[in-house]
């Protein structure tokens, strides 16, 4: 619901007769900037061996938006995510991340592109023998080239951003599931990614903790403008965070719905899609 309130005021103000021309121009530019694709998926096909999982889908993700990938179990959401971050190569078709063809670029360009993205895997994947501070230090020590003291400051800042500023010296085993997710988020944010990929960020969390993660996602998106690509099943999360969704379908192996979930809930021509958005629980 909060997401729905973020864009319309800009759009409505553009072209308003009461605004002076320079402001109109700036606002027009803002609106146009919001519509620049940062991820482009074109005629994308994914297969494991001979088994086709996704058959010829195309969509864009725009700079700064919160984009959600939905669909039933086994329809290929994680498969799509793995291709978007370049862990798998498309069987055919293209995936462009910030203009670079992630499936066929050379190693140098691939690593350059990887620097622009952060990933929160479903498990959180923190290293159990390391403190939260050390976990967040890892990507910074590897890629930032900053001196140790600057890294230590950044680590405290990143953990502070997710409300874990007092837990720098704690081990993952000493904190709750929701805190682990937040620590994973801090690590994914370490290198100031342009795009953050989140696989089921609220899976296994209680509704209150899950809502806290949603708030954090929105806060980061708003404060830093990070583009978010999220796989989730949680209906409450979808309506809270998503500006646009795509829904994948196992039987057609394609996209059966695309757009604003609030609109799809009432207006999708596909009964299954309406049912998905209107289910209780
Ligand atoms: N590495 C793999 N090798 C072969 N088949 C795989 C592999 N990974 C996934 N699959 C198959 O691809 C299909 C899609 O799997 P995927 O994990 O992408 O689905 P999903 O939509 O993420 O499901 P869930 O909601 O249960 O996480 C499934 O039939 C799965 O068995
Ligand atoms: Mg999955």
Overall shape: globular
Classify the beta-strand content into a percent band.
15-25%
What is the H-and-E element order?
HHHEEEHEEHEHHHEHEHEEHH
Tell me the number of structural domains: 2
Largest sheet: 6 strands, mixed
Stretches where pLDDT is under 50 for at least 5 consecutive residues are 1-20
Using brief descriptors, characterize the structure shown.
binds adenosine-5'-triphosphate, binds magnesium ion, 10 strands, 2 domains, disordered N terminus, 4-stranded antiparallel sheet, alpha/beta, single chain, Rossmann fold, 6-stranded mixed sheet, 281 residues
How would you describe this structure to a colleague?
With 281 residues, this protein is α/β, with parallel strands linked by helices. It has 2 domains: 142 residues, Rossmann fold, CATH 3.40.50; 74 residues, no CATH class. The strands form 2 sheets. It has a 6-stranded mixed beta sheet with strand order 6-7-8-3-9-10, sandwiched between helices. A 4-stranded antiparallel beta sheet has the order 2-1-4-5, covered by helices on one side. A hairpin with a 2-residue loop joins strand 1 and strand 2. The longest helix is centred in the last third of the chain and has 18 residues. It starts with a helix and ends with a helix. The N terminus is likely disordered. Bound molecules: adenosine-5'-triphosphate and magnesium ion. Magnesium ion binds next to helix 4.
């Amino acid at each position: 619901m909060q997401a729905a309130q973020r864009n319309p005021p800009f759009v409505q103000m553009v072209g308003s007769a009461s605004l002076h021309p320079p402001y109109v121009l700036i606002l027009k530019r803002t609106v146009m900037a919001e519509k620049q694709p940062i991820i482009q998926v074109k005629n994308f096909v994914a297969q494991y061996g001979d088994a086709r999982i996704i058959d010829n889908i195309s969509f864009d993700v725009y700079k700064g938006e919160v984009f959600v990938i939905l669909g039933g179990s086994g329809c290929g959401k994680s498969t799509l995510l793995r291709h978007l971050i370049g862990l798998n190569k498309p069987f055919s078709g293209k995936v462009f991340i910030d203009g670079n063809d992630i499936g066929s670029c050379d190693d140098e360009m691939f690593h350059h592109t990887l620097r622009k993205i952060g990933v929160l895997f479903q498990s959180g994947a923190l290293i159990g023998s390391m403190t939260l501070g050390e976990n967040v230090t890892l990507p910074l020590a590897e890629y930032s080239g900053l001196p140790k003291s600057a890294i230590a400051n950044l680590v405290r800042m990143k953990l502070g951003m997710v409300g874990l500023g007092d837990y720098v010296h704690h081990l993952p085993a000493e904190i709750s599931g929701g805190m682990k997710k937040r620590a994973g988020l801090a690590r994914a944010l370490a290198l100031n990614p342009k795009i953050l990929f989140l696989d089921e960020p609220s899976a296994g969390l209680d509704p209150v903790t899950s809502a806290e993660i949603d708030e954090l996602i929105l806060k980061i998106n708003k404060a830093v403008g990070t583009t978010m690509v999220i796989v989730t099943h949680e209906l409450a999360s979808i309506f809270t965070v998503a500006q646009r969704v795509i829904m994948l379908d196992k039987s057609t192996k394609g996209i059966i719905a695309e757009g604003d979930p609030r609109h799809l809930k009432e207006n999708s021509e596909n009964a299954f899609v309406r049912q998905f958005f209107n289910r209780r629980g």
